[in-house]
Amino acid sequence: MSEHPDDETDSDPFPPPNGEIDDTPIVSCTTCGREWDVSYELDELGVGNQALEQFALDHKRHTGHYPDDVTTWRADCLRCPEEVERLSGDAARRWARTHARHTRHAVEIRHSTDGEPTVVEPEDQ
Ligand SMILES: [Zn+2]
Ligand SMILES: [Zn+2]
Asked: Residue 93: its pLDDT value, please?
């Protein structure tokens, strides 16, 4: 994986996520009032941001909310109940493109802190 998962060359209407978290192995959550040292995940898994992403997803799964400084992208199919939430806009767009290609459904992508949705249309061919 590249170090710049959001480094896309096509026109990207989305701003880069605020609060880069790849420099610090500390994840905090004001909702829980706790901090976690995720250097274990970083060392053990050796996957950089994906370790933090995994931690954030696990936190959401177990507590119902994300840790601080975590923003997510939601891809919502406009035609069926399929939807996913991803920490990277790249991953959300990839899911949307794949879903659109296979189902010919249009998928709406929205960033949690930026209300402007974009729609991925199925390719017309
Ligand atoms: Zn929490
Ligand atoms: Zn669909």
From this structure: 95
